[in-house]
Specification:
Elements (H helix, E strand, L loop, with lengths): L7 E4 L2 E4 L5 H14 L1 H5 L9 H17 L2 H4 L4 H19 L7 H8 L4 H18 L4 H7 L2 H4 L13 H8 L39 H14 L4 E9 L4 E7 L2 E7 L5 H17 L6 E5 L2 H12 L2
Parallel strand pairs: 3-6
Antiparallel strand pairs: 1-2, 3-4, 4-5
GO molecular function, one term: nucleic acid binding
Protein name: RNase H type-1 domain-containing protein
Length: 307
């Protein structure tokens, strides 16, 4: 029994044709995407329909995955063919914004916060290349990236009828893809494994109800016990017209002017953050930070307890 040849075959949701021009597949996903927009049309009534945020979520849940699936592969199709999918994408964005057909599409992109399909395909391709480059044991690394011609940055074969994923990406993006320069995955210690900081309260009562001499005495006792530490002081202040924060580390003093709408809690928090960023770059590793905001300390303690 002879097996009859076919012009196209569906495999894992992708329609592969004998000419590898992706025309049947693009037509297929276009029909599916158009049908999925019916739910947006039903819920798009100006008076009793859903709001724009819900319409956007529906579009990104039901329609956009259809256009994204396999886009890294069929991105090698001709630009004129890929533009057929843009019409569906634009139709969905217009439904989200309840815009008329004459509305400029660039304005709709900015209003909805949804990028063009070409940008999404480039992002997905870049993300795939980064993942493959980081996991060298993955089979795709040997097939796609571990190529002598690619690593040597040889000219791209413009006459190739079926360009590879990376060749297609390089043609559309005028950059040289150097696998060695791709940032590896971070190996830093995750937050839940960090040691919990130690908190020491100089006074248990409110600062306004405590005599300054008592606070000073408690401070001097603490400094006398921890003589080998570098002392840091943070503070935030807020007035009617200005908001700012300051940090003092050893003999160095830093200050920042913040937005006047920022709260005193924000000012105290930014001061502590700036202090931590500064001491992170110093050679000394033993620091003691003095802060007069109990709410900031409680916030850190609550975060540490809920990890």
């Amino acid at each position: 029994m002879e097996i009859e040849p076919v012009s196209s075959l569906k495999y894992l949701g992708m329609i592969l044709d004998d000419k590898m021009n992706w025309i049947p597949h693009v037509k297929y996903i276009k029909q599916r995407a158009v049908k999925s927009l019916n739910i947006l049309k039903i819920m798009n009534n100006r008076y009793y329909g859903a709001n724009r945020d819900l319409l956007k979520k529906l579009y990104m849940t039901f329609t956009l995955p259809i256009l994204d699936y396999g886009s890294i592969i069929y991105n090698s199709a001709k630009d004129t063919l890929l533009k057929q999918l843009d019409t569906v994408h634009h139709m969905g964005i217009r439904l989200i914004n309840r815009a008329i057909k004459s509305t400029p599409i660039k304005s709709l992109y900015a209003e909805s916060g949804i990028p063009p399909l070409e940008v999404r395909r480039s992002f997905l391709t870049t993300n795939l290349i980064r993942k493959i480059a980081n996991i060298k044991i993955e089979p795709l690394y040997k097939i796609i990236l571990n190529n002598v011609a690619l690593n040597a940055f040889s000219p791209i074969n413009e006459t190739c009828k079926f360009p590879s994923i990376i060749e297609r990406y390089q043609r559309k993006n005028p950059i040289i893809l150097n696998v060695q320069n791709i940032i590896p995955r971070s190996r830093k210690t995750p937050p839940w494994r960090l040691s919990q900081p130690e908190f020491i309260f100089l006074i248990e009562t409110k600062k306004e109800e405590t005599h300054p001499a008592l606070i000073k005495n408690q401070y001097l006792q603490l400094v006398n016990i921890h003589k080998d530490f570098t002392y840091c002081f943070t503070d935030g202040s807020k007035s009617v017209e200005n908001t700012g924060c300051a940090v003092k580390i050893a003999s160095d003093t830093f200050n920042w002017k913040l937005d006047k709408k920022a709260s005193i809690f924000t000012a105290e928090g930014i001061a502590l953050l700036k202090c931590l960023e500064n001491i992170k770059e110093r050679l000394t590793k033993k620091f003691m930070i003095f802060i007069d905001s109990k709410s900031i300390i409680q916030g850190i303690q609550n975060f540490s307890n809920n990890r």
